[in-house]
Specification:
six-stranded antiparallel barrel; Cell shape-determining protein MreC
Length: 330
């Protein structure tokens, strides 16, 4: 037993010596490899190549899928960002436009508040079939709206209240093709006499709207009055329904009528009838009695004397009233 045990020990020692010799020999710098090294190296290279290429292909396939998914998610996020940017841009433009409209309406209210009371309303309906005729606002009898009240924007008059419900009202526009009520108006004419500028209102009646030229037509202007383009036209208040001094538009041109007795003026409206979102209803400072007389509103504690002679008291822009006879214009 000791012999075989010693024999095994001798074999192990010889093996270790050979292994150390081989390691020492192969670890030194050499120009060429031995044939066993080349054999084993080539064998392992072939085997490694057989497994490495498919593994790289599979790994590359899954990596490309992952990259494609990442690109898809990034593209989706960018599209969502662009959609949100477009929405925010549209909202910003809408808010800017609304802010500009409200500023103009506030400015108009400040200009007119000394003469009239204004009720702000929003346009809630506008039928494409009657686009130039009527609009519907969100104020009615419960808010103090009455028939024939004037309706304006920050730029000028657009029409009058045609009919009223409890919580809404229909406004007939100045551009209505079917409008039968005339509006009494004044042209703010300016003359130079002896080097001095003279302002003289020239009266007339706005009777219709020309849809081809998109201009209001003002007739019954006295012959001989010098009317020039760009002169402003305002309501006169002589009709007893529409208050005075509400801007209507500007003169474009003046022509003689068919008989050469009066003049006819074509007026560019001040208001933009294509963009009506917020409007103002002019609250009149007078009431209409059952017999058709105009009675100015009085402060609390004041007594209104009865009207005589079939004449109605027409309020002017300073709050006072003057007696006028009834007329067909507004």
């Amino acid at each position: 037993m000791s012999f075989f045990g010693n024999k095994r020990l001798i074999i192990v020692l010889v093996g270790l010596v050979l292994l150390i010799s081989v390691v020492g020999y192969t670890s030194r710098e050499r120009v060429n490899l031995t044939w066993p090294e080349m054999f084993f190296k080539d064998t392992f290279s072939v085997v490694q190549g057989l497994f490495y290429r498919p593994a790289q292909a599979v790994s590359g396939f899954f990596r490309e899928i992952e990259d494609a998914y990442s690109v898809y998610e990034e593209n989706k996020a960018l599209k969502a960002g662009l959609d949100q940017y477009a929405r925010l841009t549209a909202e910003l433009h809408d808010l800017k436009a609304e802010n500009e409209r409200l500023r103009k309406e506030l400015d108009a209210k400040n200009r007119l508040k000394s003469s009239y009371s204004l009720l702000f309303a929003e346009v809630v309906a506008r039928n494409p079939d009657t686009w130039n005729n009527v609009i519907t606002i969100d104020l009615g009898l419960k808010s103090g709206i009455k028939k024939d009240m004037a309706v304006i924007t920050a730029k000028g008059m657009i029409g009058r209240v045609q009919s009223v419900a409890n919580f809404s009202a229909t406004v007939e526009l100045l551009t209505s093709y079917e409008r039968r009520d005339h509006i009494s108006a004044d042209i703010q004419a300016t003359y130079i006499v002896d080097g001095k500028t003279v302002h003289e209102p020239v009266s007339g009646v706005i009777e219709e709207y020309d849809p081809q030229e998109r201009l209001l037509v003002m007739r019954k202007i006295p012959w001989g009055k010098k009317i020039e383009p760009k002169q402003q036209v305002i309501t006169s208040g002589r009709g007893g329904v529409v208050p005075r001094n509400l801007p209507i538009g500007y003169i474009v041109r003046v022509v003689p009528d068919d008989y050469g007795l009066t003049q006819t003026a074509y007026i560019q409206p001040s208001a933009d009838f294509s963009q009506l979102s917020e409007v103002m209803v002019v609250e009149r400072d007078f009431t209409i009695s059952p017999n058709g007389e105009l009675i100015p509103k009085q402060a609390a504690g004041q007594v209104q004397p009865p009207a005589t002679g079939g004449k109605a008291a027409t309020p002017n822009s300073t709050g006072t009233s003057s007696a006028t006879t009834g007329g067909g214009g507004q």
